[in-house]
Protein backbone atom coordinates (compact mmCIF):
# COMPACT_ATOMS: atom_id res chain seq x y z
CA UNK A 1 0.00 0.00 0.00
CA UNK A 2 1.32 3.44 -0.94
CA UNK A 3 1.77 5.67 2.09
CA UNK A 4 -0.02 9.03 2.06
CA UNK A 5 2.46 11.81 2.80
CA UNK A 6 1.76 14.45 5.43
CA UNK A 7 3.45 17.81 5.96
CA UNK A 8 3.06 19.80 9.17
CA UNK A 9 3.22 23.59 8.86
CA UNK A 10 3.95 25.21 12.20
CA UNK A 11 5.32 28.48 13.52
CA UNK A 12 4.43 31.14 16.04
CA UNK A 13 1.45 33.47 15.74
CA UNK A 14 1.60 35.72 12.68
CA UNK A 15 4.73 34.17 11.19
CA UNK A 16 3.03 33.49 7.84
CA UNK A 17 1.71 29.90 7.94
CA UNK A 18 -1.51 30.62 6.06
CA UNK A 19 0.41 32.59 3.42
CA UNK A 20 2.70 29.58 2.98
CA UNK A 21 -0.28 27.23 2.77
CA UNK A 22 -1.84 29.36 0.04
CA UNK A 23 1.42 29.44 -1.91
CA UNK A 24 1.68 25.65 -1.74
CA UNK A 25 -1.92 25.15 -2.85
CA UNK A 26 -1.56 27.58 -5.75
CA UNK A 27 1.54 25.71 -6.95
CA UNK A 28 0.04 22.23 -6.55
CA UNK A 29 -1.54 21.86 -9.98
CA UNK A 30 -3.61 18.70 -10.44
CA UNK A 31 -2.86 17.53 -6.91
CA UNK A 32 -5.59 16.54 -4.49
CA UNK A 33 -4.70 17.92 -1.08
CA UNK A 34 -6.50 17.40 2.22
CA UNK A 35 -5.91 20.53 4.31
CA UNK A 36 -6.42 20.53 8.10
CA UNK A 37 -6.32 23.96 9.76
CA UNK A 38 -6.10 24.25 13.53
CA UNK A 39 -6.85 27.52 15.34
CA UNK A 40 -6.47 28.38 19.00
CA UNK A 41 -9.68 30.38 19.28
CA UNK A 42 -13.31 29.38 18.90
CA UNK A 43 -13.68 31.55 15.77
CA UNK A 44 -11.84 30.22 12.74
CA UNK A 45 -10.35 32.91 10.50
CA UNK A 46 -7.58 31.13 8.60
CA UNK A 47 -9.87 28.80 6.66
CA UNK A 48 -11.65 31.88 5.29
CA UNK A 49 -8.30 33.20 4.04
CA UNK A 50 -7.28 30.06 2.18
CA UNK A 51 -7.37 30.46 -1.59
CA UNK A 52 -10.42 29.04 -3.34
CA UNK A 53 -9.58 25.45 -4.04
CA UNK A 54 -11.14 22.13 -4.94
CA UNK A 55 -9.23 20.59 -2.07
CA UNK A 56 -10.84 19.51 1.20
CA UNK A 57 -10.29 22.14 3.93
CA UNK A 58 -11.15 20.99 7.45
CA UNK A 59 -11.16 23.29 10.49
CA UNK A 60 -10.24 22.24 14.03
CA UNK A 61 -10.99 25.24 16.23
CA UNK A 62 -11.10 26.17 19.92
CA UNK A 63 -7.89 24.53 21.03
CA UNK A 64 -4.48 23.31 19.87
CA UNK A 65 -3.85 19.99 18.16
CA UNK A 66 -1.12 19.39 20.74
CA UNK A 67 -3.64 19.16 23.56
CA UNK A 68 -7.35 20.13 23.54
CA UNK A 69 -8.24 18.93 20.02
CA UNK A 70 -5.48 16.36 19.58
CA UNK A 71 -8.01 13.51 19.50
CA UNK A 72 -9.99 15.47 16.89
CA UNK A 73 -6.91 15.57 14.65
CA UNK A 74 -6.47 11.81 14.83
CA UNK A 75 -10.19 11.23 14.24
CA UNK A 76 -10.19 13.63 11.28
CA UNK A 77 -7.32 11.82 9.57
CA UNK A 78 -8.95 8.45 10.29
CA UNK A 79 -12.12 9.70 8.58
CA UNK A 80 -10.17 11.00 5.59
CA UNK A 81 -8.49 7.62 5.18
CA UNK A 82 -11.76 5.72 5.61
CA UNK A 83 -13.46 7.88 2.98
CA UNK A 84 -11.18 6.35 0.32
CA UNK A 85 -11.14 9.65 -1.52
CA UNK A 86 -8.05 9.84 -3.75
CA UNK A 87 -5.84 12.31 -1.85
CA UNK A 88 -2.24 12.88 -2.91
CA UNK A 89 -1.16 14.40 0.40
CA UNK A 90 -2.24 15.93 3.72
CA UNK A 91 -1.09 19.36 4.87
CA UNK A 92 -1.71 20.32 8.49
CA UNK A 93 -1.46 23.96 9.57
CA UNK A 94 -1.17 24.01 13.34
CA UNK A 95 -2.16 26.77 15.71
CA UNK A 96 0.56 29.33 16.37
CA UNK A 97 0.64 28.12 19.98
CA UNK A 98 0.93 24.41 19.21
CA UNK A 99 3.79 22.30 20.52
CA UNK A 100 4.76 19.94 17.65
CA UNK A 101 5.87 17.09 19.93
CA UNK A 102 2.40 15.62 20.73
CA UNK A 103 1.41 15.99 17.06
CA UNK A 104 4.48 14.00 16.01
CA UNK A 105 3.67 11.45 18.69
CA UNK A 106 0.21 10.95 17.17
CA UNK A 107 1.73 9.92 13.86
CA UNK A 108 4.17 7.58 15.54
CA UNK A 109 1.87 5.82 18.03
CA UNK A 110 -1.52 5.67 16.34
CA UNK A 111 -1.75 2.31 14.58
CA UNK A 112 -3.79 3.52 11.60
CA UNK A 113 -1.72 6.66 11.02
CA UNK A 114 1.49 4.70 11.44
CA UNK A 115 0.49 2.20 8.77
CA UNK A 116 -1.15 4.55 6.26
CA UNK A 117 0.50 7.98 6.60
CA UNK A 118 4.16 8.97 6.22
CA UNK A 119 5.22 12.14 8.02
CA UNK A 120 7.30 13.82 5.31
CA UNK A 121 8.50 17.03 7.01
CA UNK A 122 7.84 19.56 9.72
CA UNK A 123 8.14 23.05 8.25
CA UNK A 124 8.35 25.90 10.77
CA UNK A 125 7.80 29.47 9.65
CA UNK A 126 9.82 32.01 11.66
CA UNK A 127 9.00 35.73 11.75
CA UNK A 128 12.41 37.40 11.25
CA UNK A 129 11.10 40.70 12.59
CA UNK A 130 9.65 39.44 15.87
CA UNK A 131 11.57 36.23 16.56
CA UNK A 132 13.43 37.72 19.52
CA UNK A 133 10.13 38.54 21.25
CA UNK A 134 8.55 35.21 20.36
CA UNK A 135 11.38 33.14 21.82
CA UNK A 136 10.24 34.19 25.28
CA UNK A 137 7.36 31.73 24.72
CA UNK A 138 8.20 28.06 25.14
CA UNK A 139 6.01 26.91 22.24
CA UNK A 140 7.98 29.09 19.80
CA UNK A 141 11.21 27.41 20.90
CA UNK A 142 9.66 23.96 20.53
CA UNK A 143 8.40 24.76 17.02
CA UNK A 144 11.92 25.72 15.96
CA UNK A 145 13.60 22.80 17.73
CA UNK A 146 11.47 20.11 16.05
CA UNK A 147 11.60 21.58 12.52
CA UNK A 148 13.07 19.80 9.52
CA UNK A 149 12.93 23.05 7.55
CA UNK A 150 13.02 26.56 9.04
CA UNK A 151 11.44 29.11 6.73
CA UNK A 152 12.90 32.45 7.86
CA UNK A 153 10.16 34.78 6.65
CA UNK A 154 9.82 38.59 6.42
CA UNK A 155 13.58 38.95 5.95
CA UNK A 156 13.12 42.48 4.61
CA UNK A 157 11.77 43.51 8.04
CA UNK A 158 14.50 42.00 10.24
CA UNK A 159 15.68 44.90 12.44
CA UNK A 160 19.28 43.79 13.04
CA UNK A 161 20.16 41.67 10.02
CA UNK A 162 19.78 37.95 9.53
CA UNK A 163 23.07 36.44 10.60
CA UNK A 164 22.31 36.91 14.29
CA UNK A 165 18.82 35.47 13.80
CA UNK A 166 20.20 32.39 12.09
CA UNK A 167 22.78 31.92 14.84
CA UNK A 168 19.95 31.92 17.39
CA UNK A 169 17.96 29.43 15.33
CA UNK A 170 21.01 27.19 14.96
CA UNK A 171 21.46 27.17 18.75
CA UNK A 172 17.98 25.67 19.02
CA UNK A 173 18.14 23.42 15.96
CA UNK A 174 21.53 22.69 14.35
CA UNK A 175 20.11 20.18 11.83
CA UNK A 176 17.24 21.96 10.08
CA UNK A 177 17.63 23.50 6.66
CA UNK A 178 17.13 27.29 6.81
CA UNK A 179 15.51 29.04 3.84
CA UNK A 180 15.28 32.84 3.76
CA UNK A 181 12.15 34.28 2.20
CA UNK A 182 9.63 37.09 1.98
CA UNK A 183 5.89 36.36 1.87
CA UNK A 184 6.78 32.65 2.19
CA UNK A 185 7.65 32.50 -1.49
CA UNK A 186 9.65 29.30 -1.87
CA UNK A 187 9.79 26.51 -4.42
CA UNK A 188 7.37 23.78 -3.31
CA UNK A 189 10.00 21.15 -4.12
CA UNK A 190 12.01 22.47 -1.17
CA UNK A 191 9.15 21.71 1.22
CA UNK A 192 7.07 18.82 -0.14
CA UNK A 193 8.13 15.23 -0.84
CA UNK A 194 11.54 15.86 0.71
CA UNK A 195 11.55 12.92 3.15
CA UNK A 196 13.13 15.11 5.82
CA UNK A 197 11.41 13.75 8.93
CA UNK A 198 13.69 11.41 10.88
CA UNK A 199 12.54 9.99 14.21
CA UNK A 200 16.17 9.51 15.33
CA UNK A 201 16.70 13.28 15.14
CA UNK A 202 13.50 13.90 17.11
CA UNK A 203 14.56 11.42 19.80
CA UNK A 204 17.86 13.27 20.14
CA UNK A 205 15.84 16.41 20.97
CA UNK A 206 13.23 14.74 23.16
CA UNK A 207 14.11 11.15 24.17
CA UNK A 208 10.70 10.82 25.85
CA UNK A 209 8.62 11.96 22.88
CA UNK A 210 6.94 8.58 22.58
CA UNK A 211 5.91 8.66 26.25
CA UNK A 212 2.90 10.40 27.76
CA UNK A 213 2.77 14.14 27.06
CA UNK A 214 0.39 16.52 28.80
CA UNK A 215 1.02 19.89 27.20
CA UNK A 216 -0.01 22.98 29.15
CA UNK A 217 -0.08 26.47 27.69
CA UNK A 218 1.13 29.60 29.45
CA UNK A 219 -1.91 30.65 31.48
CA UNK A 220 -1.16 34.34 30.87
CA UNK A 221 -1.73 33.92 27.12
CA UNK A 222 -5.36 34.08 26.12
CA UNK A 223 -7.66 34.46 23.16
CA UNK A 224 -10.59 36.80 22.62
CA UNK A 225 -12.96 36.16 19.72
CA UNK A 226 -15.59 38.63 18.48
CA UNK A 227 -18.47 37.79 16.11
CA UNK A 228 -20.74 40.71 15.31
CA UNK A 229 -23.18 41.15 12.40
CA UNK A 230 -23.55 44.93 12.76
CA UNK A 231 -21.41 46.86 10.24
CA UNK A 232 -18.34 48.82 11.27
CA UNK A 233 -17.32 52.42 10.66
CA UNK A 234 -13.88 52.06 8.97
CA UNK A 235 -12.40 55.35 10.19
CA UNK A 236 -13.34 54.63 13.80
CA UNK A 237 -11.99 51.09 13.58
CA UNK A 238 -8.71 52.27 12.09
CA UNK A 239 -8.24 54.81 14.87
CA UNK A 240 -9.09 52.32 17.59
CA UNK A 241 -6.80 49.57 16.27
CA UNK A 242 -3.88 51.96 15.90
CA UNK A 243 -4.40 53.16 19.46
CA UNK A 244 -4.64 49.57 20.68
CA UNK A 245 -1.31 48.52 19.17
CA UNK A 246 0.36 51.68 20.49
CA UNK A 247 -0.76 50.93 24.03
CA UNK A 248 -0.66 47.12 24.06
CA UNK A 249 1.26 45.99 20.98
CA UNK A 250 4.06 44.33 22.95
CA UNK A 251 1.59 41.86 24.43
CA UNK A 252 -0.61 41.46 21.33
CA UNK A 253 0.90 38.45 19.60
CA UNK A 254 -1.75 38.21 16.90
CA UNK A 255 -4.83 39.95 15.58
CA UNK A 256 -6.72 38.85 12.50
CA UNK A 257 -10.18 39.19 11.14
CA UNK A 258 -12.72 39.44 8.35
CA UNK A 259 -14.60 42.73 8.61
CA UNK A 260 -18.00 43.99 7.50
CA UNK A 261 -17.88 47.71 6.72
CA UNK A 262 -21.06 49.75 6.26
CA UNK A 263 -22.09 50.21 2.61
CA UNK A 264 -19.12 48.17 1.40
CA UNK A 265 -19.82 45.27 -1.02
CA UNK A 266 -16.51 43.55 -0.26
CA UNK A 267 -15.15 41.92 2.83
CA UNK A 268 -12.09 43.52 4.39
CA UNK A 269 -9.30 41.34 5.74
CA UNK A 270 -6.85 42.56 8.37
CA UNK A 271 -3.82 41.12 10.16
CA UNK A 272 -1.74 42.36 13.05
CA UNK A 273 1.43 41.17 14.76
CA UNK A 274 2.50 43.26 17.76
CA UNK A 275 2.84 46.85 16.45
CA UNK A 276 2.34 45.96 12.79
CA UNK A 277 -1.10 46.24 11.19
CA UNK A 278 -2.05 45.58 7.59
CA UNK A 279 -5.29 45.13 5.72
CA UNK A 280 -6.75 44.78 2.25
CA UNK A 281 -10.12 44.40 0.53
CA UNK A 282 -11.21 40.78 0.21
CA UNK A 283 -13.65 39.08 -2.10
CA UNK A 284 -17.19 40.45 -2.53
CA UNK A 285 -19.86 39.27 -0.14
CA UNK A 286 -22.08 36.73 -1.87
CA UNK A 287 -25.84 37.25 -1.94
CA UNK A 288 -26.54 34.27 0.32
CA UNK A 289 -23.72 34.97 2.79
CA UNK A 290 -24.19 36.52 6.21
CA UNK A 291 -22.17 39.71 6.47
CA UNK A 292 -20.32 39.25 9.70
CA UNK A 293 -17.33 40.68 11.56
CA UNK A 294 -15.14 37.88 12.88
CA UNK A 295 -12.01 38.93 14.76
CA UNK A 296 -9.53 37.07 16.97
CA UNK A 297 -7.05 38.65 19.41
CA UNK A 298 -4.35 36.46 20.98
CA UNK A 299 -1.97 37.90 23.54
CA UNK A 300 -0.70 38.08 27.07
CA UNK A 301 -2.99 39.35 29.85
CA UNK A 302 -5.65 40.59 27.45
CA UNK A 303 -8.25 42.98 28.86
CA UNK A 304 -11.21 41.40 27.12
CA UNK A 305 -13.76 43.84 28.49
CA UNK A 306 -11.81 46.89 27.29
CA UNK A 307 -11.19 45.36 23.84
CA UNK A 308 -14.85 44.52 23.40
CA UNK A 309 -15.89 48.02 24.49
CA UNK A 310 -13.40 49.57 22.05
CA UNK A 311 -14.73 47.40 19.23
CA UNK A 312 -18.36 48.25 20.03
CA UNK A 313 -17.54 51.95 19.81
CA UNK A 314 -16.51 51.37 16.18
CA UNK A 315 -19.89 50.02 15.05
CA UNK A 316 -21.51 52.16 12.38
CA UNK A 317 -24.72 52.48 14.37
CA UNK A 318 -22.70 53.79 17.32
CA UNK A 319 -21.01 56.32 15.06
CA UNK A 320 -24.39 57.45 13.71
CA UNK A 321 -25.75 58.00 17.21
CA UNK A 322 -22.64 59.97 18.16
Description:
- By secondary structure, this protein is of the alpha/beta class.
- It folds into 2 domains: 4-205, Rossmann fold (3-Layer(aba) Sandwich); 221-321, Hypothetical Protein Yjia, Chain: A,domain 2.
- The chain is built from 12 helices and 12 strands.
- It has helices at residues 17-26, 46-49, 70-83, 100-109, 111-116, 131-134, 138-145, 163-172, 199-205, 234-248, 304-312, 316-321; strands spanning 4-11, 33-38, 56-60, 89-93, 117-127, 149-153, 177-180, 221-228, 252-259, 266-273, 276-284, 293-300.
- The strands form 2 sheets. Strands 3-2-4-1-5-6-7 form a 7-stranded parallel beta sheet, sandwiched between helices.
Write the layout of secondary structure elements.
Elements: E1 4-11, H1 17-26, E2 33-38, H2 46-49, E3 56-60, H3 70-83, E4 89-93, H4 100-109, H5 111-116, E5 117-127, H6 131-134, H7 138-145, E6 149-153, H8 163-172, E7 177-180, H9 199-205, E8 221-228, H10 234-248, E9 252-259, E10 266-273, E11 276-284, E12 293-300, H11 304-312, H12 316-321
Parallel strand pairs: 1-4, 1-5, 2-3, 2-4, 5-6, 6-7
Antiparallel strand pairs: 8-12, 9-10, 9-12, 10-11
Amino acid sequence: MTMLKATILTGFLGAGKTTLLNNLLLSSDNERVAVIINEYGEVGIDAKLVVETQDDVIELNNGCVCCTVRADLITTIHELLASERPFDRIIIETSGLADPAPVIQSFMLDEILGSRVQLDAIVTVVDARHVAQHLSVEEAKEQISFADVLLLNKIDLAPDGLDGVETRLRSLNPLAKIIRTNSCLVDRDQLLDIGAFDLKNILSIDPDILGDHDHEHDSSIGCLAIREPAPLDPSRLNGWLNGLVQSSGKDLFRMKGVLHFADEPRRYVFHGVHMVLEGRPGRPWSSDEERLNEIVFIGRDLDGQAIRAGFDACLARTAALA
